[in-house]
């Protein structure tokens, strides 16, 4: 059974490109472009991993991370962002990792599988 990943980013190019790459790794991917979509998906089904952008049109990814830590403590989250200095705050709030945009496919694969298959 393949692992399920929730990819949350407001950039359609990230959703398509990263989503396609994750699928080539044999992962099942659900994409959401908004905080509201992320929350709705988490209410329906808890994935094995969340890849979460910090900037979303209707919310803050760090706030979503805090919500996940309260309601889904064991759910791993990798933050993705181009915001300088965001890594420290992401890790402080409980993210398992951080990928600075733009990132390479090898870095994505390494980060994802370090979390999914520790």
Question: What profile does the largest beta sheet have?
Answer: 5 strands, parallel
Per CATH, what is the topology?
Rossmann fold
Gross morphology is globular
Radius of gyration (CA) equals 13 Å
How big a fraction of the residues is strand? 15-25%
Uncertain runs with pLDDT below 50, 5 residues or more? none
Q: Report the mean per-residue pLDDT as an integer.
A: 96
Structural class: alpha/beta
Tell me the domain tally. 1
User: Mind telling me the CATH class?
Assistant: Alpha Beta
**What is the CATH architecture term?**
3-Layer(aba) Sandwich
Helical stretch tally: 5
Order of helices and strands: EHEHEEEHEHEH
Pfam families: Response_reg
Modified residues (4-aspartylphosphate): 53
Domain Response regulatory: 4-116
Protein name: Response regulatory domain-containing protein
Give a topology summary:
Blueprint: E1 4-8, H1 12-24, E2 28-32, H2 35-44, E3 49-53, E4 55-56, E5 59-60, H3 61-71, E6 77-81, H4 86-92, E7 97-100, H5 105-116
Parallel strand pairs: 1-2, 1-3, 3-6, 6-7
Antiparallel strand pairs: 4-5
InterPro entries: Bact_response_regulator, CheY-like_superfamily, Sig_transdc_resp-reg_receiver
Keywords: Phosphoprotein
Domain Response regulatory: 4-116
